[in-house]
């Protein structure tokens, strides 16, 4: 059963819809511990003060901001809480926009939205249907774990999804990337033709089930084999890369390698007559 990670309401005009948020994705990275090589026991880390060297307990730790090198101003939890305008934890939908107008670079994390009580299910269903029929998504602000996020609320299957977005000043300018000024403005026609052909041959419908985390699967097998005392498989040598001398040759070789193989025709066998 999913665990509630946020509880509040969505404000749709003058309508307040009680909701709960549930994390929609999960990180399946395999966590490796740091061990003492001789004892194979976990390494413990203690929090110590960089000035006096004493070990510090949680109750003696406060938050602060470094406004100059080595100079800090403390900020209490109460002061942080007082900065939050929506003390009753509600999400106010500010605007509705088209999903295609938001570039994927702004998306941060996804959450399922669920109704919080029986009384709010009718309003929840109404908002979901209105968003779905309009082919729009709602833009709102939400505070999660003391941080304000821009958020997109959209219809998703038989429910709704909230996706936190980066604010514009959190997205770096692509103009800061070195070397972009050296890009060619007029690519060779023949190279472009073959490059477009390669794109066409690799184009398919998006099916997320066909993509696997190969590294994680290999790591899981390595761990299982070591726990079972099985010998570790040696890494196979990499296949040699073709010796390509120029871009055009590389494109032509890529098109040839990715070209779909013709389907073999099956010849129907005649039934023997007795």
TrEMBL record:
<dbReference type="GO" id="GO:0006303">
    <property type="term" value="P:double-strand break repair via nonhomologous end joining"/>
</dbReference>
<keyword id="KW-0233">DNA recombination</keyword>
<keyword id="KW-0238">DNA-binding</keyword>
<dbReference type="GO" id="GO:0003690">
    <property type="term" value="F:double-stranded DNA binding"/>
</dbReference>
<dbReference type="Pfam" id="PF02735">
    <property type="entry name" value="Ku"/>
</dbReference>
<feature type="domain" description="Ku">
    <location>
        <begin position="53"/>
        <end position="182"/>
    </location>
</feature>
<comment type="similarity">
    <text>Belongs to the prokaryotic Ku family.</text>
</comment>
<keyword id="KW-0227">DNA damage</keyword>
<dbReference type="InterPro" id="IPR006164">
    <property type="entry name" value="DNA_bd_Ku70/Ku80"/>
</dbReference>
<protein>
    <recommendedName>
        <fullName>Non-homologous end joining protein Ku</fullName>
    </recommendedName>
</protein>
<dbReference type="InterPro" id="IPR016194">
    <property type="entry name" value="SPOC-like_C_dom_sf"/>
</dbReference>
<keyword id="KW-0234">DNA repair</keyword>
<dbReference type="InterPro" id="IPR009187">
    <property type="entry name" value="Prok_Ku"/>
</dbReference>
<comment type="subunit">
    <text>Homodimer. Interacts with LigD.</text>
</comment>
<dbReference type="GO" id="GO:0006310">
    <property type="term" value="P:DNA recombination"/>
</dbReference>
<comment type="function">
    <text>With LigD forms a non-homologous end joining (NHEJ) DNA repair enzyme, which repairs dsDNA breaks with reduced fidelity. Binds linear dsDNA with 5'- and 3'- overhangs but not closed circular dsDNA nor ssDNA. Recruits and stimulates the ligase activity of LigD.</text>
</comment>
